[in-house]
Amino acid sequence: MHLLILSDGKKGHENQTLGLAEAILRRRTGTYEISSISQSKSGPVADRRPDAILAAGHSTHPFLLRLARRYRCPSIVVMKPSLPSFLFSQCLIPEHDLKPGKKLKPNIIATKGALNRIPEALPPKTEAGLIMLGGPSKHFDWQTQPLLAAIERIVSQEPQRPWTVGDSRRTPADLLPLLAEKLPNLEAVSHQDSPPDWLRDQMLEAEVAWITPDSTSMLFEALTAGCCLGTLPLTPNETRLSRAHDLLASQGWLTPFKSYSPPLPQAPAPLHESARCADLLLERLA
């Protein structure tokens, strides 16, 4: 089996399609290639005829449809498409982007959040704790002082854990130095200084993860990695992503800081959406 991944250059989109491709190829012998939609004036091309084409991101959709027709192979879109869903062979759409209670079309798979590249075989956990910070967004109001107070309480209530905190491109520049100064036993790691697989490795190791709720992809990576998950306090702005966070909390997948008392509970079940979707796709496209 040969898979073609169309890339719009956005790391988060590519992470999802790669996670799906890797899960498929754990089940079928084969290869994948990544083709950028901006690599030439004529658009992306494949080195060899693909058996399926995967894409994420609105700008990839016209190329996905055109190449699927050219190579006469299935088109698989990850995330809700901007074009009508019936145009694609299969659509993997987060459940928070679907209308509740509406029957799914035969070519739609509802996913619990974003796909990722966390492996299916998880290593044993250590006692480590991980804190990950996003940044200002339209989905949650960002306030630094409540975050600092929450992190201080979390670390002080479980002093036996070796704690690591990391930031992201959206994190205010002064927050990580503030934490390092306030909590000297907290290892602070900037995204500018960390290698590409640092976050994945930290999540695989950590027993407990605390993440700001604006960081949707990190929430699902932590759940897939088997972490006990809590979310740091940010005020929601009543958007689809803030409602998705509340749904996860009501289902027991995560614990908001306002409901926290140690220890954090485990998730109700193992979660690996890349693997589940790979199984469904291979069954549907057989």
Describe the structure.
The structure is a single chain. By secondary structure, the chain is an alpha/beta fold. The chain folds into 2 domains: 2-112 and 274-284, Glycogen Phosphorylase B (Rossmann fold), CATH 3.40.50.2000; 129-259, Rossmann fold (3-Layer(aba) Sandwich), CATH 3.40.50. The protein has 8 helices and 14 strands. The protein has helices spanning 11-25, 61-71, 144-157, 175-182, 198-205, 216-224, 240-250, 273-284; strands spanning 2-7, 31-36, 52-56, 75-78, 90-94, 108-111, 129-132, 140-141, 163-166, 187-189, 208-211, 228-231, 235-236, 255-256. The protein has a 6-stranded parallel β-sheet, with helices on both faces. It has a 6-stranded parallel β-sheet with strand order 10-9-7-11-12-14, sandwiched between helices. Strands 8-13 form a two-stranded antiparallel ribbon. Helix 1 packs across helix 8 (273-284). The longest helix is centred in the first third of the chain and has 15 residues, at 11-25. This is Nucleoside-diphosphate sugar epimerase. InterPro entries: Elm1-like.
